[in-house]
Design goal:
Blueprint (H helix, E strand, L loop, with lengths): L4 E3 L2 E2 L7 E4 L7 H17 L1 H9 L4 E3 L12 H20 L11 E9 L5 E4 L6 E8 L7 E4 L23 E4 L5 E6 L4 E3 L8 E8 L1
Antiparallel strand pairs: 1-2, 3-10, 4-5, 5-12, 6-11, 7-10, 7-12, 8-9, 8-11
Length: 211
Protein backbone atom coordinates (compact mmCIF):
# COMPACT_ATOMS: atom_id res chain seq x y z
CA UNK A 1 0.00 0.00 0.00
CA UNK A 2 1.27 3.48 -0.91
CA UNK A 3 1.10 5.77 2.11
CA UNK A 4 -0.04 9.35 1.39
CA UNK A 5 1.64 11.40 4.11
CA UNK A 6 0.17 14.78 5.03
CA UNK A 7 2.40 15.42 8.05
CA UNK A 8 4.67 13.32 10.27
CA UNK A 9 1.54 12.20 12.16
CA UNK A 10 -1.23 12.08 9.53
CA UNK A 11 -1.98 9.82 6.57
CA UNK A 12 -4.97 10.16 4.24
CA UNK A 13 -7.15 7.05 3.82
CA UNK A 14 -10.38 6.14 2.00
CA UNK A 15 -10.47 9.10 -0.36
CA UNK A 16 -13.75 10.02 -2.13
CA UNK A 17 -13.06 11.58 -5.52
CA UNK A 18 -15.19 13.72 -7.84
CA UNK A 19 -14.29 14.12 -11.52
CA UNK A 20 -14.97 17.50 -13.15
CA UNK A 21 -14.57 18.52 -16.79
CA UNK A 22 -15.60 21.45 -18.98
CA UNK A 23 -17.00 20.14 -22.27
CA UNK A 24 -17.31 23.62 -23.78
CA UNK A 25 -13.60 23.39 -24.61
CA UNK A 26 -14.10 20.42 -26.94
CA UNK A 27 -13.84 21.50 -30.57
CA UNK A 28 -17.28 21.71 -32.16
CA UNK A 29 -19.15 20.61 -29.03
CA UNK A 30 -19.98 24.03 -27.55
CA UNK A 31 -22.68 24.64 -30.16
CA UNK A 32 -24.12 21.21 -29.45
CA UNK A 33 -25.07 22.31 -25.94
CA UNK A 34 -27.75 24.62 -27.38
CA UNK A 35 -29.02 21.65 -29.40
CA UNK A 36 -29.06 19.58 -26.23
CA UNK A 37 -31.21 22.18 -24.50
CA UNK A 38 -33.73 22.10 -27.35
CA UNK A 39 -33.67 18.29 -27.32
CA UNK A 40 -34.26 18.16 -23.56
CA UNK A 41 -37.23 20.49 -23.85
CA UNK A 42 -38.52 18.38 -26.74
CA UNK A 43 -38.35 15.19 -24.69
CA UNK A 44 -40.24 16.93 -21.87
CA UNK A 45 -42.95 18.20 -24.22
CA UNK A 46 -43.52 14.77 -25.80
CA UNK A 47 -43.30 12.61 -22.66
CA UNK A 48 -46.86 12.55 -21.32
CA UNK A 49 -46.06 9.61 -19.02
CA UNK A 50 -43.16 11.54 -17.49
CA UNK A 51 -45.28 14.66 -17.08
CA UNK A 52 -47.92 12.60 -15.26
CA UNK A 53 -45.25 11.05 -13.01
CA UNK A 54 -43.90 14.49 -12.08
CA UNK A 55 -47.38 15.81 -11.30
CA UNK A 56 -48.20 12.75 -9.20
CA UNK A 57 -44.99 13.08 -7.19
CA UNK A 58 -45.18 16.91 -6.89
CA UNK A 59 -41.90 17.29 -8.79
CA UNK A 60 -41.37 20.97 -9.62
CA UNK A 61 -40.31 20.61 -13.22
CA UNK A 62 -39.75 17.51 -15.31
CA UNK A 63 -37.63 14.38 -15.26
CA UNK A 64 -37.65 11.48 -17.70
CA UNK A 65 -36.17 9.17 -15.05
CA UNK A 66 -39.40 7.25 -14.47
CA UNK A 67 -40.55 7.12 -18.09
CA UNK A 68 -37.70 7.14 -20.64
CA UNK A 69 -34.89 4.82 -19.59
CA UNK A 70 -32.27 5.95 -22.11
CA UNK A 71 -32.69 9.22 -23.99
CA UNK A 72 -29.44 8.65 -25.93
CA UNK A 73 -31.50 6.96 -28.67
CA UNK A 74 -34.01 9.79 -29.04
CA UNK A 75 -31.86 12.35 -30.87
CA UNK A 76 -28.48 12.39 -32.58
CA UNK A 77 -27.20 15.09 -30.23
CA UNK A 78 -27.71 12.75 -27.24
CA UNK A 79 -25.56 10.16 -29.02
CA UNK A 80 -22.87 12.80 -29.48
CA UNK A 81 -22.99 13.55 -25.76
CA UNK A 82 -22.74 9.83 -25.02
CA UNK A 83 -19.53 9.60 -27.03
CA UNK A 84 -17.99 12.32 -24.86
CA UNK A 85 -19.27 10.67 -21.68
CA UNK A 86 -17.72 7.33 -22.67
CA UNK A 87 -14.31 9.00 -22.91
CA UNK A 88 -14.53 10.81 -19.58
CA UNK A 89 -16.13 7.95 -17.62
CA UNK A 90 -13.40 5.52 -18.64
CA UNK A 91 -10.76 8.17 -17.88
CA UNK A 92 -12.29 8.58 -14.41
CA UNK A 93 -12.31 4.81 -13.86
CA UNK A 94 -8.64 4.66 -14.79
CA UNK A 95 -7.69 7.57 -12.54
CA UNK A 96 -9.43 6.12 -9.47
CA UNK A 97 -7.93 2.72 -10.30
CA UNK A 98 -11.08 0.65 -10.64
CA UNK A 99 -10.31 -2.99 -11.48
CA UNK A 100 -12.59 -3.64 -14.45
CA UNK A 101 -10.82 -6.86 -15.53
CA UNK A 102 -10.02 -5.49 -19.00
CA UNK A 103 -13.63 -4.39 -19.56
CA UNK A 104 -15.05 -0.90 -20.04
CA UNK A 105 -17.96 0.71 -18.27
CA UNK A 106 -21.15 0.92 -20.33
CA UNK A 107 -23.97 3.46 -20.28
CA UNK A 108 -27.10 1.83 -18.85
CA UNK A 109 -29.41 4.84 -18.37
CA UNK A 110 -29.59 8.52 -19.27
CA UNK A 111 -32.38 10.96 -18.42
CA UNK A 112 -33.39 14.62 -18.61
CA UNK A 113 -33.86 16.84 -15.55
CA UNK A 114 -35.64 20.20 -15.85
CA UNK A 115 -35.90 21.77 -12.40
CA UNK A 116 -38.27 24.72 -12.07
CA UNK A 117 -37.98 27.52 -9.52
CA UNK A 118 -38.02 26.21 -5.92
CA UNK A 119 -37.56 22.65 -7.14
CA UNK A 120 -35.02 20.39 -5.42
CA UNK A 121 -33.96 16.75 -5.39
CA UNK A 122 -33.47 15.12 -2.00
CA UNK A 123 -30.45 13.01 -1.01
CA UNK A 124 -30.06 9.69 -2.84
CA UNK A 125 -27.62 7.18 -4.33
CA UNK A 126 -27.71 5.27 -7.64
CA UNK A 127 -27.85 1.55 -6.76
CA UNK A 128 -26.60 -1.28 -9.00
CA UNK A 129 -24.28 1.07 -10.92
CA UNK A 130 -20.56 1.87 -10.83
CA UNK A 131 -20.22 5.48 -12.01
CA UNK A 132 -22.91 8.15 -12.13
CA UNK A 133 -22.83 11.74 -13.19
CA UNK A 134 -24.52 14.81 -14.60
CA UNK A 135 -23.90 17.05 -17.59
CA UNK A 136 -25.19 20.60 -17.11
CA UNK A 137 -26.98 22.04 -20.13
CA UNK A 138 -28.44 25.29 -18.78
CA UNK A 139 -27.55 26.84 -15.43
CA UNK A 140 -29.06 30.35 -15.21
CA UNK A 141 -27.99 32.82 -12.50
CA UNK A 142 -29.26 31.60 -9.12
CA UNK A 143 -29.67 27.99 -10.25
CA UNK A 144 -29.01 25.40 -7.58
CA UNK A 145 -25.80 23.54 -6.80
CA UNK A 146 -25.24 19.83 -6.20
CA UNK A 147 -24.16 18.73 -2.73
CA UNK A 148 -22.30 15.54 -1.84
CA UNK A 149 -22.45 13.84 1.57
CA UNK A 150 -19.54 12.23 3.40
CA UNK A 151 -20.33 8.49 3.14
CA UNK A 152 -19.06 7.98 6.69
CA UNK A 153 -21.67 10.32 8.15
CA UNK A 154 -24.00 7.60 9.55
CA UNK A 155 -21.08 6.14 11.55
CA UNK A 156 -19.94 9.42 13.12
CA UNK A 157 -22.44 9.32 16.01
CA UNK A 158 -21.09 11.79 18.66
CA UNK A 159 -18.26 13.17 16.51
CA UNK A 160 -17.84 16.98 16.79
CA UNK A 161 -18.63 19.11 13.77
CA UNK A 162 -15.79 20.24 11.54
CA UNK A 163 -14.62 23.83 11.59
CA UNK A 164 -16.26 25.89 8.85
CA UNK A 165 -12.75 26.82 7.76
CA UNK A 166 -11.67 23.18 7.37
CA UNK A 167 -10.53 21.78 4.05
CA UNK A 168 -13.29 20.60 1.71
CA UNK A 169 -12.17 16.96 2.00
CA UNK A 170 -12.71 17.10 5.77
CA UNK A 171 -16.21 18.58 5.73
CA UNK A 172 -19.39 16.54 6.10
CA UNK A 173 -20.89 18.07 2.94
CA UNK A 174 -19.23 19.41 -0.20
CA UNK A 175 -21.09 21.67 -2.62
CA UNK A 176 -20.26 22.08 -6.32
CA UNK A 177 -21.77 24.93 -8.33
CA UNK A 178 -21.84 23.84 -11.99
CA UNK A 179 -22.06 26.08 -15.02
CA UNK A 180 -23.18 25.45 -18.59
CA UNK A 181 -20.99 22.68 -20.01
CA UNK A 182 -19.81 21.25 -16.67
CA UNK A 183 -19.54 17.46 -16.42
CA UNK A 184 -19.39 15.87 -12.96
CA UNK A 185 -18.73 12.17 -12.30
CA UNK A 186 -18.67 10.19 -9.05
CA UNK A 187 -18.93 6.61 -7.88
CA UNK A 188 -22.58 5.64 -7.69
CA UNK A 189 -22.60 4.81 -3.97
CA UNK A 190 -21.91 8.45 -3.09
CA UNK A 191 -25.00 10.12 -1.65
CA UNK A 192 -25.88 13.50 -3.19
CA UNK A 193 -28.71 16.01 -3.50
CA UNK A 194 -29.71 19.00 -5.61
CA UNK A 195 -30.37 22.11 -3.56
CA UNK A 196 -33.38 24.34 -4.15
CA UNK A 197 -33.37 26.15 -7.48
CA UNK A 198 -33.74 29.85 -6.70
CA UNK A 199 -33.59 30.95 -10.32
CA UNK A 200 -36.78 31.98 -12.10
CA UNK A 201 -35.48 30.06 -15.12
CA UNK A 202 -35.37 26.25 -15.30
CA UNK A 203 -32.16 24.42 -14.48
CA UNK A 204 -31.57 21.80 -17.20
CA UNK A 205 -29.24 18.85 -16.87
CA UNK A 206 -28.73 15.31 -18.14
CA UNK A 207 -27.94 12.57 -15.65
CA UNK A 208 -26.69 9.05 -16.35
CA UNK A 209 -25.43 5.78 -14.94
CA UNK A 210 -22.64 3.45 -16.09
CA UNK A 211 -22.25 -0.18 -15.04
Amino acid sequence: MTDITLSPNLSRLFVTEIYKADLTGIAGFNDKIDELEDACRGVADDDVTGQDWCQKHSYLGYTSYGSVEDISRHATVFEELKRQLDIHVNSFATQVELDLSNRKLKLVSMWVNILDQYGAHSGHVHPHCAVSGTFYVSIPPGASAIRFEDPRLPQMMAAPLRLTSSRIDRQNFATFQPVRGTLLLWESWLRHEVLMNLSEEPRISISFNYA
